[in-house]
Design a protein that fits this description.
Elements lengths: L3 H13 L3 E5 L2 H11 L3 E5 L14 H8 L3 E4 L9 H8 L11 E3 L32 H18 L4 H25 L7 E4 L5 H7 L2 E5 L10 H10 L7 E4 L5 H11 L3 E3 L13 H15 L4
Parallel strand pairs: 1-2, 1-3, 3-4, 5-6, 5-7, 7-8
Helix pairs in contact: 2-5, 3-4, 5-6, 6-10, 8-9
Bound molecules: zinc ion.
């Protein structure tokens, strides 16, 4: 008995609260799972918003997390092709294999942009299945939230009503937030953006921003001197409104071009935690719009 007692104490909370373990590839999906699952889920994100989700190591600690996961949620569309297949294979957890209820790709639930832009594939474009950075349109997040609530309900049927009501509560505040963002961002329509990587196509599509160029010559290839000097010639004379990069992208190309074009180069959070202000999904979009308005002088 003496020996058993500590074990029983340790097990007690696990029995009291049925927690689903959610393994997210990116922080935005962990944040969404927290919104829908609340106390019934324990979320973990493989990457932080300060890491490039295209490229991380399939390290043993991540394999262990996938092995114990009840649900894996990732952006998909090959964003994680460099590491997720290896994680899934090594973890060998039948519950979260592609095709099972415990595996979902957010990009499967939205209308994917750039899906036919395969012309650059041979030159190294890393988005052959369309653009995977779908979290940058909050309407996409709505679609993923609905799908996620269904998955949680199907994996954990006992709490299915809770997931449904959490979804409704989330969507209520989310739809109100979207209306606010769309009103605040009205003056951004038509603003011309140069972006480091094609991380913002859904944001541009949503807010009517114009994507004029990328610092990467082809999605996934680092900026080159030739490409940058071509951009200075093409966009000389005030035809660009802002240059945007994600927190994990090297500032040098942005800053260099910013100096030459006389345009602000800014960092926007691409996920939750990408800036100090982006604490959750709502404050992430608040901050994106704040920063764009400031940079384009409409604040
Ligand atoms: Zn990408």
């Amino acid at each position: 008995m003496k020996r058993l007692l500590p074990v029983l104490i340790l097990l007690a909370p696990a029995v009291a609260i049925a927690e689903l373990r959610v393994f997210a590839c990116e922080p935005e999906w962990a944040a969404l799972a927290d919104e829908i699952g609340r106390e019934h889920v324990q979320t973990y994100s493989a990457t932080t918003a300060l890491q490039d989700p295209h490229y991380i190591q399939a390290r043993p600690s991540l394999i262990a997390k996938v092995r114990r996961a009840d649900l894996v949620i990732c952006s998909g569309a090959q964003l994680e092709i460099g590491w997720l297949p290896a994680l899934l294979q090594k973890a060998n957890n039948r519950d979260v294999m592609p095709g099972s209820d415990g595996y979902m790709e957010a990009s499967s639930w939205v209308l994917r942009l750039d899906a036919t832009a395969n012309v650059d594939r041979a030159r190294g474009d890393i988005h052959p299945q369309g653009n995977p950075h779908v979290q940058m349109n909050p309407h996409n997040v709505t679609a993923v939230a609905r799908a996620l609530a269904q998955r949680l309900a199907s994996i954990d049927a006992d709490n299915s009503e809770t997931y449904r009501s959490n979804l409704e509560l989330f969507l209520e505040k989310w739809q109100a937030a979207i209306a606010g963002w769309e009103a605040r961002a009205a003056s951004l329509r038509g603003k011309r953006m140069i972006t480091h990587h094609k991380s913002w196509v859904y944001l541009q599509d949503w807010l009517g921003l114009e994507a004029v160029a990328n610092l990467e010559p082809v999605a996934g290839l680092p900026p080159t001197a030739t490409h940058l000097s071509r951009l200075t010639k093409e966009f000389a004379g005030g035809v660009v409104d802002v240059i945007v990069r994600a927190p994990y992208q090297d500032a040098r190309a942005s800053e260099w071009l910013s100096d030459r074009l006389g345009v602000d180069a800014i960092v926007l959070p691409l996920s939750v935690g990408g800036t100090a202000e982006a604490q959750d999904l709502i404050t992430m979009f608040d901050d994106i719009i704040d920063r764009l308005l400031r940079a384009t002088h409409h604040a």
